[in-house]
Amino acid sequence: MALDRVLKELERRNAAAEAGGGEQRIKKRHDKGQLTARERIELLFDVGSFVELDRLRTHRCDEFGMGDNKVPGDGVITGFGTVEGRTVFCYSQDFTVLGGSLSHTVAEKICKIMEMATTAGAPIVGINDSGGARIQEGVESLGGYSDIFYRNTMASGVVPQISAIMGPCAGGASYSPALTDFIMMVDKTSYMFITGPEVIKSVTREEVSQEDLGGAMAHNSRSGVAHFMSPDDQACIADLRRLLSFLPSNNVDDPPLADTGDPQDRLTPELEDLIPENPNKPYDMHTLITAVSDRDSFMEAHAHFALNAITGFARIGGRPVGIVANQPMHLAGCLDIDASNKISRFVRFCDCFNLPVITFEDVPGYLPGTAQEWGGIIRHGAKIVYAYAEATVPKITVITRKAYGGAYAVMGAKHVGADLNLAFPTAQIAVMGADGAVNIIFRKEIKEADKPEERRKELVEDYGNKIATPFRAAELGYIDEIISPTDLRVRIAQGLAMLANKKGITPARKHGNIPL
Q1: Which of 132, 210, 258, 292 pairs with 325 at a CA distance of 20 to 30 A?
Q2: Catalytic-labelled residue, pool 172, 196, 224, 417
Q3: What is the dihedral of CA 501, 507, 511, 516, to 10 degrees?
């Protein structure tokens, strides 16, 4: 009989935990088009694989009537399971329980699974949907945030960390996602900010809506804080699962191979006409990336931010890789402050988790202007140099057209440690374009010529043939091979196979000092 009573009590408490904040609050979530914390977990993990931990834990606060307001689980669901057969740890904040607010108990639950994930060598997924710190607990709640931040930092570069913002994430709560590798947001139903619209209005007199200030599009396109945006909860979880499919479980494992059914020796003749004869005419670098990648495998990161650069994941012959590219369709592919930050952080992530970096280069230089110089383009641009030079993963760079000046030097050049450097016959590699170079070198000669414009054109053509040509770089060994666009996928696949067992060696040190 005693056992029966205990089992009934266990059943009652489990039911209370699963009920969360109750039917009415759950209905409100559904009415807004949002899933509950448990529904999100069910979508994320393989069917029947999720194991919940600390389901019956409650907060320890008795002040302000909180002693009578305790729900088993206390506002967050934590545990582990499998995603496509691989172990993943997760916490999912439950907005139906005290607004998903962070108590010290909630922080302890989150910290526990973060420590377990780091020990087990498995990714951490945080589903954020919280009203912030639990005010009734005061400094205990704030201390809980700091505990989480510390563990985010300790796990960085050890296991992948992904944050899904699927509701509010404001104030100090936003620093934990910012410390993770990737942030996903749901359009119109998620937001992040340090200080909300009302505080901003009272301090600076600016008027801004919650959506414009910290909504999904604001952080995907303006601030660059978020990397992915999904239309609804279901799509966000699907994107999350897809992202995990490219990543290794930890910094020691290799990324997971997949049979995509796309042969490595597939030629890419569609690229033969991609590069325009007019060097000032743009083209879409996405076309090249799609052609080279295994069919339907490219997943772009930061798709709405710094559009002059492209970053994302793809597979080539089933092998996951990181893609970095200039985008001639925007700002002619110039590097600026935002593009520098976007590229450097992505390269460093790939290096953390053994993902080869494939770079497609068509860059006329750094974007000029006082806003860029005063904004610190020197410092931000140096991050790209640092990221490529520091990375020990396989690095393959392909120059499709322009590679001018300092931008040539930083975008995965042989000189900063690239393993294999290829170029199309259309490549133009020089300090600057032929027009600019001739105007400087032959200024006097052009001015004194009988027909200045004709002479200038002759000198431009001569400079292009002698200096701004891939043959010059190939003669110097800076380019390993000049290839036909038709062979691009094949050559990259061969390079990846050759570099599969690359061992990177760096000087012994505590850590470097990247120009942040």
Answers
A1: 258
A2: 172
A3: -90
Query: Do residues 50 and 42 make contact, with C-beta atoms less than 8 angstroms apart?
Result: yes
| pLDDT tens track for 344-379 | 999 999 999 999 999 999 999 999 999 999 999 999
Catalytic, 67? Answer no
Whether residue 504 lies in the annotated active site: no
DSSP string, 252-282: SSPPPP---S--TT---GGGTTTS-SSTTS-
- Distances in Å between the alpha carbon of 369 and those of 211, 374, 440? 31, 9, 20
Please count the other Cβ atoms lying within 10 Å of the Cβ belonging to residue 515: 13
For 240, the token pair is: 């999350």
pLDDT at 172: 81
Give the start-to-end residue ranges of the domains of the chain: 9-246, 269-433+468-498
Q: Which of 395, 390, 388, 413 is nearest to 403 (CA)?
A: 413
Q: Say how far apart CA 230 and CA 289 lie, in whole Å.
A: 22
Q: Rounded distance, CA 157 to CA 352, Å?
A: 5
Of 133, 306, 407, 434, catalytic: 407
Q: What CATH number labels 9-246?
A: 3.90.226.10
Comparing 96 with 267, which gets the higher pLDDT? 267
Distance (Å, whole) CA 212 – CA 457: 50
What class, spelled out in words, does domain 269-433+468-498 have in CATH?
A: alpha beta
Catalytic residue among 143, 406, 417, 436: 406
406 catalytic, yes or no? yes
- Equal CATH topology for 9-246 and 269-433+468-498: yes
Looking at 81, 171, 215, 495, which residue is catalytic? 171
Report CA 366 to chain centroid distance, whole Å. 22
Digit-coded pLDDT (tens) for 392-408: 999 999 999 999 888 88
Q: Which of helix, strand or coil describes residue 470?
A: helix
Q: Among this protein's residues, is 261 annotated catalytic?
A: no
467, pLDDT greater than 60 = yes
